[in-house]
Amino acid sequence: MKLIKGILIGVLVCVCQLVSAQQRPVFSTYPYNGLALNPAYAGSLNMFSAILTNRNQWVNIDGAPVYQSLTAHTTLREKNVGVGLNVVRDAVGVHEQYSVYGSFAYKIRMSKGILAMGLQGGFDQRTSNLDRVNVISQDDPLFVFSKTFNPNFGMGIYFANRDYFIGASIPYFLTPDVIEGSGDGAIASEGKASRYYYINAGFVKDMSRNLKISPSILLRLQDDAPVAFDINLNFIINEIIYAGVSYRYQDSFSLMTQLVLNENFRIGYAYDIPIGSLGTYTAGSHEIFLNYRIPLKFSKKDGLCPVYF
């Protein structure tokens, strides 16, 4: 029995190594956090904005993914330049990755809206604490501590006005090899990071004096993987309450909300309900964020500046 358990643990760890090496974290509140997907979004609000996010995925499953991030961006005094910062911690089982990226966006004012082109650069530092796995032999060369460091860069384009937006990005252009295992006699398990392509678009429409709707879609294209997409629908009530639903293709349904507390603070929450057999084993995924905004004295209201995206 112990032998079978050890074999199962070994297979599970190998699969997790390959999967986690290939995947970027997926989260649900990105409709309220555009910089997480596209560096060209930096400075689009013409104010300083910082968002703290925490996501606990697949509650009740040991070693399930945990995602935490800080995204912040602002417009500079030149007004046509935006800068941003994106810091992410992504943990899956014994694997943990920290990502730190800075972004720069140049904005061009056009007759119908504002076009921005953005670049980002930074690094991913990944650690695998396989030595913490409880196995039959603590000297097993597969189960060792390893650490990798990979610089990367990305790019994006974003067009928006007060009524609609469209964007496209390749946030992580390089696809480095990810090798687990180091040291004398260690057995290496190798995976390769995938390149992601994001395309998203949406609009806002008045339904009445106090109600707006804002549908949007996100396409996720990944090397050597089928196309995935999200469909989102948000209701904006009195410009204070955002209430929405989302469908992630063959994955989950989500309920999400954002509450505007005052000029400076917003809070939000999302609950994901998995589709299929996974729902039998988990209570879903919980995600919460806090958004702090500061209007800039040198930034005047712009009729073309997006408000709801």
Automatic annotation (TrEMBL):
An example Pfam family from this entry, by short name, is PorP_SprF
Taxonomically, the superkingdom here is Bacteria
The record's section on InterPro entries has: PorP/SprF_Bacteroidetes
Entry keywords, A to Z: Signal
User: What residue stretch is flagged as signal peptide?
Assistant: 1-21
Q: Does the keyword Signal apply?
A: yes
What protein name applies here?
Answer: Type IX secretion system membrane protein, PorP/SprF family
